[in-house]
Amino acid sequence: xxxxxxxxxxxxxxxxPQQIQLMKLLxxxxxxxxxxxxxxxxxxxxxxxxxxKHEDDASEIKDEFTETNEEEYEEADGSEEDYDNIDIxxxxxxxxxxxxxxxxxDDNYPEEDEGRQLPFKxxxxxxxxxxxxxxxxxxxxxxxxxxTQIVGSIDEDGYLRRETSAIVDDLAFRQNIIAxxxxxxxxxxxxxxxxxxxxxxRSLQECLLIQLRRLKDEGKKVDIxxxxxxxxxxxFTKKHYEKIQRGLNIDDEQLKEVMQQIIRLNPKPGGNxxxxxxxxxxxxxxxxxxxxxxxxxxTLNSRNAPELRISEGYRDMLKDYDRGSKKDKRQKEAVLxxxxxxxxxxxxxxAIKQRQHxxxxxxxxxxxxxxxxxxxxxxTALKPMILKDIAEKTNLDISTVSxxxxxxxxxxxxxxYRLKFFFSExxxxxxxxxxxxxEVKKILSDLVESEEKKYPLSDERLTExxxxxxxxxxxxxxxxxxxxxxxxxxxxxxxx
Length: 496
Description:
Elements: H1 2-27, H2 30-43, E1 47-49, H3 80-84, H4 89-92, H5 126-134, H6 141-153, H7 164-174, H8 181-191, H9 204-217, H10 223-231, H11 233-237, H12 241-248, H13 252-263, H14 278-281, E2 287-292, E3 295-300, E4 308-310, H15 312-323, H16 329-369, H17 371-376, H18 387-394, H19 398-407, E5 409-412, E6 415-418, E7 426-428, E8 434-436, H20 437-450, H21 459-468, H22 475-484, H23 490-493
Parallel strand pairs: 2-5
Antiparallel strand pairs: 1-4, 2-3, 5-6, 7-8
């Protein structure tokens, strides 16, 4: 038993460099693959771009990890035996020019223009926006320092959640400035006049009032709305519209107008301002699925994956060594270094090939499982699917499928989806059929959207409607799905 464990541990150790490299490459999205390849090119001089050659068949991908000799995974320790037993025959054979070459480009995909650049949105950060406006005020040096401290205390939502006394203490201990709470409050009121409206508010109520008063200054009739937020804010948050109506002594039309004015306000004035992350703003799909006359076609997005090969210069150095008669220790050390770099280059190219093979096989299994969805785009056509289902179809480990599903996107005729979107648990119908929980969530969302806003559907009523449609579901499950869909309870969905 102990011997078996040692052998298993030794095998894992031998394969760990390849496995680790492959796992890391699987997690790299298409948008960052080119960067990762460039990093490897910089680290390994034996690896270079193949700008001239093109392989004819891009689909023939071999998994060479199981066929690699044990010696390839062992690092040289600099012993005499290592130098005396250098075998470079496999590196200098004639006809070996194509060793390590690969091709990921799709010949049917049009080439990008060399001068074409991917545009992405950039904006001034929220903090910079406030600082820029601060520069427009004619403030004394002390007031400017206080204002800068206040701006720095505003959170990303645009709220000033730090107490005035705490800001006074910060100024004293960090800036060596003695200021009163009244001075700080005066500066806060100045900053509350900045854009976006509502910034530097201490609470949601104050945030809404700042925006309403800004509208009043612009000549808008918002007096009743200001009274509603000032006197009946708790009733507003709980949607007790009858109490607000009675307290303000207004009719239904006036109430409706007031509520419309309020709900158009921004509860997070800082939420729509700030730097836009390129990767978050523009999703680069890893796969494309096209409907060609009722038949789905899957392609891997590999437009930004440059072609690689083993450096011809490094191979020539090995050939020169092989032809030479005198082989001293220094030459042997250089050859051993070259051999190690070529092996590393081969490993990386093999890992790229294996990455392509793994991605395509995983996505193909998902496409076959969810074929009806990719044909129609109807979420109710999604079948129950878990990681184990795809792992069994592809003969891959569940952890490998998970890495692919969590970090990859597929572009369809109906939009771009993250792969994990297609994974869901199952739920039984009255007929005993297993359906996806995503299908149930879609129907639940449709029921809420079509409900009468004055009389929103309770969880009990939603459960009854789903059961009438044949879905065996408990009320607590309906509540759980409703929360996952970010749908509030019926009382908070109540409208006018």
